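User: Could you check the structure of this?
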Amino acid sequence: MLPSFTASTIATTNVPISVRVAGAGPGLLLLHGYPQTGAMWHKIAPQLAEDYTVVVADLRGYGASGKPSGQPGGTLYSKRVTAQDLIEVMGTLGFETFTVAGHDRGARVAHRMALDHPARIERLAVLDIIPTLQVFRSADETMARVYYHWFMLSQPFDLPERLVGADPEFYLRWCLRTWSTDFAAFSEPALEEYIAAFSDPATVHATCEDYRAGAGIDLEHDEADLDTKISCPLLVLWGEHGFVGKAYDVLGEWGKRAENVTGEALPSAHFLPEEAPAETLAALRRFLGTDDHRPAHPRLRPT
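Assistant: Sure, the predicted structure tokens are below.
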């Protein structure tokens, strides 16, 4: 995947992070979600590299990045420590400030990054999420059915590890198929990378720890920062056929958490960069001001 990108591993304070880098210019960090790797950006990352130094990272616990273990309850996988990994990565690559775009779990890491390191983040894009705390606060029967995995994967070790680990490829394919509108959106090389990574028991455990953190320590951090707004420009994209767009006032929720919010629905379900790559790329380029090198004119949401 991403043959024009140079792959390497960058040592951070606590864990090695796998990255793929291409392009020149300002830094643009791309973060993936569950149950994938950085390969999920393969349809749009090369085009973004025409204007930016694009850094496609695997989150700690995912893909080829390190998978620490030893502390129960998700402590090693809080969005705060994961965000710190990536701040160090971008610093090692020479970027004191940069833009970050994240999907799913990666978007939650990016949200935390903008709160913990506001001076480092120039612009932020989050794809198909609302803030974690609001998901739990507004939970109802529909949310529990759709986001069942939030509750299953956050159960104590090692119940979810055994359930998912019994047939990880089946579970990965089931997630991709049921959370998308068309399974054909996932290219075979990308699927092979996802399957290879997710078939490692260490990945299954680490991803469960990610969800344990999301249902635990991440909520503590979010509660403490509830009155802190994201100060950089924020782009919010979501799939018009997915749960997030149907269940929430997405711009309204993010308008409570950020000073300058733009956003729109795209013709996809959950996996925007793979289901609607052209539309996702166009929206990101408008936000970044690289749409045919013309300044962006985003639609603003009053906050």
